[in-house]
Specification:
Residues 54-64 have a biased composition (Pro residues). Residues 1-66, 316-338, 390-411 are annotated as: Disordered. Keywords: DNA recombination, DNA-binding. Helix 10 (235-250) crosses helix 14 (364-377). The chain has two domains: 2-54 and 64-206, Tyrosine recombinase, N-terminal domain (DNA polymerase, domain 1, Orthogonal Bundle), CATH 1.10.150.130; 215-408, Intergrase catalytic core (hpI Integrase, Chain A). The radius of gyration is 26 Å and the shape is globular. The chain is built from 19 helices and seven strands. By secondary structure, the protein is mostly helical.
């Protein structure tokens, strides 16, 4: 594994076999060796693209001279793009080289999550191009059709065709890339434009929603996590309880609180709040959510134990939620920001301890779905729930609303009662 330092925020992990693990199978098993390939989970930092500086004039170039396009050597997005297959190296001094434009395209996306998803999906297409000897700018619709038909995903170590939603997302990402290249006059066509894509009905039918918990299940999960923290009274146990409380009391997306800093805890109008980044609003898009007593209790207990590890009893600035020191290995002092995978593992472990039947299928999005469903199911106005969820359109909020409360309040029982007095078969059966 090659680890690339991306500054003081995070690192990029890159491995050789990740694309094959992500499941984009090509038509030929005996193709040429593919260059080192990027991991689908590689977080791409949103470093600003610096303009290309002109090389200093000199009569005779020497190896020690600064390269004409230095940003690919020092920028994490540029370094990740350099590992994508089928993209030839840019010519020195070419301001609009394929790799440079690909990095600019990724950087133009609205969030880190979108950058990661687009990077992964583009890597699948370029892997197909590399293994079939196809130059990406020479691709035609037939090539994209062949790639679409050969797509697979890896689930539990087994390959299977992707869902309609996955197929549509991959095609959309690659189409966005070609559109960006077209807008910079480096390619004449977008070969994905006329490719048949899954319909919205097919996408909706294939969507695998995160399981939603009922009210009793949610309360049991919260009690289990906090009860375990009380019994063990360790930093890790209270952190896990805080994670569960954040998931099931705030409706926040997991990236909102894993990306939060200690400094984001604040007070507004006398209420405790957590400031967080919002989806689709760029690096300056910020909002806050109110933190009530049940959540504050476990969060404060976690932060107190965390502060006790430091000589002055004050936690230095850093992420809100972090890994804890290894109990036996001093080379692992903890303090690293929790990832979405960490949160998923914590959630499933606590749900298993609580004996929830869907423990192994839960995801952080289950918390968001559960909060919205619970509030709407107990007659909280849609506008208030929409505001909490941060949705621009109320229809999006309704889309998170699961069916359990609809079943409980269904008018079918009323219809049965109304018709019962007029049914002759019912009266004959009662004789």
């Amino acid at each position: 594994m090659t680890v690339i330092n991306s500054g003081d925020r995070r690192t990029i992990g890159l491995t050789r076999d990740t694309l094959r693990a992500s499941g984009d199978a090509g038509p030929s098993a005996g193709a040429a060796t593919v260059p080192p390939q990027p991991t689908p989970e590689a977080p791409l930092d949103g470093t600003t693209l610096r303009p290309v500086g002109a090389a200093p004039p000199a009569p005779v170039p020497t190896p020690e001279m600064t390269p004409a396009v230095p940003q690919l050597a020092v920028d994490p997005i540029g370094q990740a793009v350099a590992l994508l297959p089928a993209l030839p190296p840019d010519d020195p001094g070419d301001r609009y080289g394929l790799r440079l434009l690909t990095a600019a395209w990724l950087r133009s996306q609205s969030s880190d999550a979108t950058r990661r998803a687009y990077y992964r999906d583009l890597a699948g297409w370029l892997d197909y191009c590399a293994r079939t000897g196809l130059a990406p700018r020479a691709a035609r619709r037939a090539d994209v059709d062949d790639w679409s038909a050969s797509m697979t995903v890896n689930v539990g170590g087994r390959s299977r065709p992707p869902s309609a939603a996955t197929r549509a997302r991959r095609l959309a990402a690659v189409s966005s890339w070609y559109t960006y290249l077209q807008s910079n006059d480096v390619t004449d066509r977008n070969p994905t434009l006329l490719v048949k894509r899954p319909t919205s009905a097919q996408i909706a039918a294939s969507a695998r929603k995160a399981p939603t918990l009922g009210v009793a299940e949610t309360a049991l999960l919260l009690d289990t996590a906090e009860g375990r923290a009380v019994d063990l009274n360790t930093e890790a146990a209270w952190r896990d309880a805080a994670v569960i409380a954040l998931l099931f009391y705030t409706a926040l997306r997991v990236s909102a609180f894993t990306g939060a800093e200690l400094a984001d805890l604040a007070t507004e109008a006398g209420y405790r709040v957590l400031w967080h980044d919002t989806k689709g609003k760029g690096p300056d898009g910020r909002d806050y959510v109110r933190l009530d007593g049940e959540l504050c209790r476990v969060l404060d207990a976690y932060l107190a134990l965390r502060a006790a590890r430091h000589p002055d009893g004050v936690t230095p600035p850093g992420p809100l939620l972090v890994t804890t020191p290894h109990p036996y290995d001093r080379s692992k002092p903890g303090g690293k920001r929790l990832t979405q995978r960490d949160v998923t593992n914590i959630l499933r472990r606590q749900a298993e301890l609580a004996g929830l039947p869907d423990a192994s299928r839960l995801s952080p999005h289950s918390g968001r779905r559960t909060v919205i469903t619970t509030l709407l199911g107990h007659d909280v106005p849609l506008a208030k729930v929409q505001d909490l969820a941060g949705h621009a359109d109320p229809r999006t909020t309704r889309g998170y609303d699961d069916t359990n409360h609809k079943l409980a309040s269904s008018p079918v029982t009323d219809l049965t009662r109304i018709l019962a007095g007029h049914r002759t078969t019912t009266r004959r059966r009662d004789r």
